[in-house]
Amino acid sequence: MSLLPSFDPRTVPVHSVDLHLDRVQPEHLTPEALRLRFRAPPVWEPESSVERRFVDRAPARAAVLVPLVMRDELSLLLTQRGQHLSTHSGQIAFPGGRCDDTDTDAVHTALREAQEEVGLEANFVEVLGTLPTYTTGSAYVITPVVALVRTGFELQANPDEVADVFEVPLSFLMNPAHHRRHVMPMTDGERQWLSMPWRGEPHTPERYIWGATAGMLRNLYRFLAA
Prior knowledge:
Layout: E1 14-17, H1 31-39, E2 60-70, E3 74-81, E4 92-93, E5 96-98, H2 106-118, E6 125-130, E7 134-135, E8 140-149, E9 162-169, H3 170-173, E10 180-186, E11 189-195, H4 211-225
Parallel strand pairs: 2-8
Antiparallel strand pairs: 1-10, 2-3, 2-5, 3-4, 3-9, 6-8, 7-8, 10-11
């Protein structure tokens, strides 16, 4: 049972923006730089790892793919969930989902879910590694699987789960000047989250990246900036 009332996160004012933090420099956002970073990771700590719980149920394991498409500059492939879904409808998300008993590990889950949700075939994917788990307020313990994706793939979104698929430049997401903090008072405390709204062209719809997706991207920023 959910303990959180329905709300539109866009209506919650921005509390602060991390203008004081440096962006990840372009030379650290290349395929080879990311390969080296995952082969020899630095000492670092995730900033976000456990959200305030708003459901009353046992935790469930899940995994998502963080697919970095190797274009002229790396871009992150994201999905917009269908409006008809019972949970997190319309939200921006990574391809991914709950772990099945038949999955061998989190990488298997992430690759399987990406193929099922958007038709991304595993032979286009080069897995770099994983980030620390992120536990959502909806009680999913998510392992982010970071991967490079070579071009030439053809996507086919599953209409039962995905309304749209799009890409955002990784350089935009790895600049904390675009990381906005929000605080929402609640009867028993407060809820905090990040948002990273992005609009590719002036007349295209805004992609409101927030919540768990933004939290995991913030951890990727901390990993690459360490």
